[in-house]
């Protein structure tokens, strides 16, 4: 099941053209979207997540028309924004339980199972009773992944996840993402060359709203 992007363009109200005729076919696995700040990555990610409308173009995920079938998209998509907003006074366990309830898991015992599995998968089990306000950037990001995974997404969109993480957290987070890449399409936006070179099976480079290059990342890129 591919994510297919055809001729997507977006100009903001201030006249800034953020995306110019972007076309990409993204297969299952880890896919990197690499580009400098201001290249248009977040704009594309928000459009793919159905949070923003493009001016033109078509996007499909398998047989879902992303621009029109919002409900079907919501059920197959996990979106981790650049800054995952958390409720600082809530514990990881309580908030995840709450999101699981919103996801429609009505029985408390069922939620407990799901919540435990996700907290273990994201390496947050030990800190489940701590308040989110005290979490480090990396812990918040991993909590964001746990929330995004609640709906068993077939497409996971992750926007600049390693910005602001310390090296140990970065490695831990990227390992978590690569596990997810074994089950679904994971689209990773980043300005860090190594994130893509180390993890992704395919990549595209975006600059000033245009795709410059698409293909397999050269391992040598990591040496740059
Ligand atoms: P990236 O995520 O690669 O840093 P963005 O998609 O955030 O790039 O931004 C692409 C361009 O569009 C930048 O020049 C940015 O300043 C501009 N931009 C982003 N969001 C808006 C907005 N809401 N209104 C106007 N311009 C915007
Ligand atoms: P990024 O790190 O993705 O480039 P920014 O820090 O540029 O993100 O933007 C953060 C928020 O501000 C986004 O919601 C974006 O849409 C908005 N934004 C960015 N550039 C502009 C702009 N020139 N005018 C209005 N809003 C903007």
TrEMBL record:
Single annotated GO MF: ATP binding
Top-rank taxon, per record: Bacteria
Entry keyword Nucleotidyltransferase: no
Domain ABC transporter span(s) in chain numbering: 3-224
Signal peptide coordinates: none
Keyword line: ATP-binding, Nucleotide-binding, Transport
Family per record: Belongs to the ABC transporter superfamily.
Protein name: ABC transporter ATP-binding protein
Natural source organism: Hymenobacter oligotrophus
């Amino acid at each position: 099941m591919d994510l297919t992007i055809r001729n997507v363009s977006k100009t903001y109200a201030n006249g800034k053209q953020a995306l110019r005729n972007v076309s990409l076919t993204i297969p299952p696995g880890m896919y990197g979207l690499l580009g400098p700040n201001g290249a248009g990555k977040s704009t594309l990610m928000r459009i793919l997540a159905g949070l923003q409308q493009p001016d033109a173009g078509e996007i499909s995920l398998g047989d879902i028309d992303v621009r029109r079938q919002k409900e079907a998209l919501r059920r197959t998509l996990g979106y981790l924004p650049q800054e995952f907003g958390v409720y600082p006074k809530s514990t990881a366990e309580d908030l995840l339980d709450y999101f699981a309830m919103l996801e429609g898991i009505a029985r408390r015992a069922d939620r407990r199972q799901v919540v435990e599995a996700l907290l273990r998968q994201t390496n947050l089990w030990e800190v489940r009773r701590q308040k989110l306000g005290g979490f480090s950037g990396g812990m918040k990001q991993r909590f964001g992944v746990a929330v995004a995974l609640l709906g068993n997404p077939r497409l996971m969109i992750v926007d600049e996840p390693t910005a602001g993480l310390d090296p140990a957290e970065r490695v831990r987070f990227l390992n978590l993402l690569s596990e997810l890449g074994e089950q679904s399409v994971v689209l990773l936006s980043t300005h860090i060359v190594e994130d893509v070179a180390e993890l992704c099976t395919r990549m595209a480079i975006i600059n000033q709203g245009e795709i410059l290059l698409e293909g397999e990342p050269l391992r040598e890129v990591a040496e740059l």
